[in-house]
Amino acid sequence: MQSIKALVFDVFGTAVDWRSSVVAELQELGEKHGKLKNNANDWGKFAQEWRNEYMKKTLRIAAGASGPLNIDAIHRQILDEMLASPEWSHIGHLWDEDARQHINLAWHRLNGWSDTVDGLHALKKHALLATLSNGNVRLLIDLARYAGLPWDMIFSTELFDTYKPNPKAYLEAMRHLALPPENCAMVAAHIYDLRAAGSLGMTTIYVRRPDEDARALDMEVKSKEDGGEVDCVVDSFVELAEILAQAQN
């Protein structure tokens, strides 16, 4: 960790708690417009399905399929498809254009995890902080302002005409930072993201977040020191800042 000069962060799920934030907005909208039983379990299912479809679409596009390269557009496409489906059509006809536009922008209004802001400020003392997110540029700017995220630089895959985990996203971010892979670390709560970054020589830091990484729920993500596949595993950004401080002193 002593050689790390830049930390490159995933955002959704890693820096911000998308699930509870989106569920809260869905509940609020449901009180105004919906017939769905208005509780967190119902809206949690809706939010998770929305997120799952986002993952499927972006992974296909990252692998070379055609599709929108703007997450707002993808989120809206998925939202309309869900609200037209048999499972959700009973509320779909109640949500007009204004309601749909409002809830689609809920992804611009996500709260950070409890350790996020303090941890990022502590980390800024030791390295450059940049996002590398599939979120579009305006979304990431809005999130930074809303949640008080002190990034030095915002990289969106929208700028690179692809999505993670396409290697182009990581390579372009490092090119713009003017740093080789050995001086860059990818910080994420998703093992697929770290596997892609690690394959290009970046240091990989896994952050445990509640119920976030569906691909890791049936396995324990371990550091290489403990026989795993990532360089470091932490439970918070604050813990990561402490580790980086120790390594650089």
Automatic annotation (TrEMBL):
MF GO annotations: hydrolase activity, acting on acid halide bonds, in C-halide compounds; phosphatase activity
Listed SUPFAM superfamilies: HAD-like (SSF56784)
UniProt keyword annotations, A-Z: Hydrolase
InterPro entries, per the entry: 2-HAD, HAD-like_sf, HAD-SF_hydro_IA, HAD_sf, PGP-like_dom2, S-2-haloacid_dehalogenase
Pfam families: Hydrolase (PF00702)
Entry similarity comment: Belongs to the HAD-like hydrolase superfamily. S-2-haloalkanoic acid dehalogenase family.
PANTHER family given in the database record: HALOACID DEHALOGENASE, TYPE II (AFU_ORTHOLOGUE AFUA_2G07750)-RELATED, HYDROLASE, HALOACID DELAHOGENASE-RELATED
NCBIfam families membership: HAD-SF-IA-v2, HAD_type_II
Name of this chain's protein: Haloacid dehalogenase
